[in-house]
Amino acid sequence: MMDERKIVVVVEESETARTALKWALQNLVRYGDVVTLLHICPYYPPRSRNKKKLRLLRLKGYQLALSFNDICTSSSINTKIEIVVTEDDAEGEKMVGLVREMGAFALVLGLHDHSFFYRLVGKV
């Protein structure tokens, strides 16, 4: 029996994110793995936060993650799916800490010029 691995897939409203998930399902995920669909809501400084707007953003993120869940369940791989929707800081530190805390085997994302992560990579 193989050990259960945790694979985090970043959920974004882009075709590259969907393609990255499909790639992971075909090439990385194996029977019994746990796939965490992670959506990062945009960061807003504390002074400009609107609770209703943040709630709506989280809801939209969760609905988007559910559409990614549909891709997972339509694959032939038997795996557990988790959904995490959170807000990150401008530097991406919360996301990195969360992935580490989960003990993820892999982080999968589709990189494109409007991506939260693309902006982070540009700062490095």
From TrEMBL:
Coiled coil residues, start to end: none
InterPro entries registered for this protein in UniProt: Rossmann-like_a/b/a_fold, UspA
Segments forming domain UspA: 5-122
Pfam family, one: Usp
The protein, known as: UspA domain-containing protein
Gene source species: Chenopodium quinoa
